[in-house]
Amino acid sequence: MSTLALPAGDGGWRTVELHEPRAWEEHPQPYRSRIAFAAAHVVADPLGDNVPGAPAVLDWDATLQFRRHLFRYGFGVAEAMDTAQRNMGLDWTAVQELVQRSAAQASELGARIAAGAGTDHREELSTVAGITDAYLEQVAFVESTGAQVILMASRHLARLAASADDYLRVYDTLLTQVREPVILHWLGEAFDPQLQGYWGSRDVTVATKTFLDLVHAHAGAVDGVKVSLLSAEHEIGLRAQLPEGVRLYTGDDFHYPELIRGDGTRHSDALLGALAAVAPAASAALTALDAGDLNRYDVEMAPTVALSRHIFSAPTFYYKTGIAFMAWLTGQQPGFTMVGGLQSARSIPHLSTLFALANDARLLPDPDLAAHRLGLWLASAGVMP
After folding, report:
1. Helices 128-145 and 164-177, interaxial angle, to 10°?
2. Which of 19, 105, 248, 301 supports an S-S bond with 257, CB 3.0-4.6 Å?
3. Given this model, what pLDDT does residue 1 score?
4. Residue 224 has pLDDT above 70, yes or no
5. Within a domain: residue 339?
C-alpha cells in the first residue's frame, strides 16, 4: 500500500497508509425506517469573484452533481441551509437560483427536497411585523418551487425580540399560513453565535418550553423539528415531549448514530450536514437499520463519528470548509474554492487530519487522486516534508 506524509499540529510530520477504497453500494430509494436529509454545500465557480462580501458565483454543474450523488445514496437534500453557507456568503439571489435548480432536479429524479426560508434577503428590519413579512416572502418562494419549507432561525428576530412572546407572535403567523407541514429549525449558537438566546432565553430549559408550546399549538403544521444544539441529552428529552406525529430531525453532528438508532421506544430522523461528508457509510448503516440489523448499523456508523466530530469541531460554524474539502478530495468537485473565500477558514493541520480520518473510514473512493490533490494543496501553501 502507498503511504503519505501529513503535517501534524505540532509542526512535525506523520505517515499514514492509504487504505484500499471500499466499493460502497448505492441505495437510490429512500429508507424505510428513517427519513434522512443531507444538508448540501455549494461549489464555487473558481473563476468567479468569490471574495468576502461579494455575491456568490456558483459552479452549477458541480453543485447539482453533488446533489445527485446524495440522491444515489438514498438521502433527501436539505437545500440552502447553513451548510450551503447561508448567512456566510450565499446571498439571496444565489439562494433563489439554487433552490429553483435543485428542486427541479429533485422533481425530475423523484427525490425528496426541503429548503430553508428565513429573513436574510432583507438587510434591515426594525419591527416584528416586518420580520414576519420577510419570512412570508421566502416561504412563498420556497413553496413555489415545490420544495418542503424549512423555517430557519432568523438573526433579525434574535436581535429584535424583546421576549418569548415576540417569537411566538412571528411563528404563530407563519404556521397558520403555510400550505404544507414544515420543518421547524432550532439552530444553536455553536453554529451561529448571532442566534444566542433564541426562543427568548439563554436558559435552554426555558427556551425549550417556549419551543414546545409553539409546536403543540401548531402540531398539524409541523412535520418535524430540526434541533442543532449538539446535546444528545437535550434531544432525547425533547423528542419525548413532541406531539404524536411530529418528527425530530437530529441536527447533532456529534451524536447522530445513537440518536438515529434510538432507544427502542423513540428515535430521531436526520437532517445533517455530516451526512454530506459520510454519505456512502451512512447509507450502508441505514440499509442495515432497514433490515433490523442493529449490530451492522453500529459497525457501519462507527468510523464516521471521528471524522464528523473533527469537521464540526470549534469554531463549529466553519464546518462548511471541511465539507467542501472532503468533496474535493473525493472527486465530487474540481477545485477547493468556496464562496466568500471560506476555504481559508480551517488550518492546514486541521484539513490534513480530515484527510487521515476520511482515509481511516475508507471514504476516499480514489485514494491516489485524494493524495495527489492533498499534495498539490500542501505544496501551493509552501508545506513540504
Report:
1. 30
2. 301
3. 62
4. yes
5. no
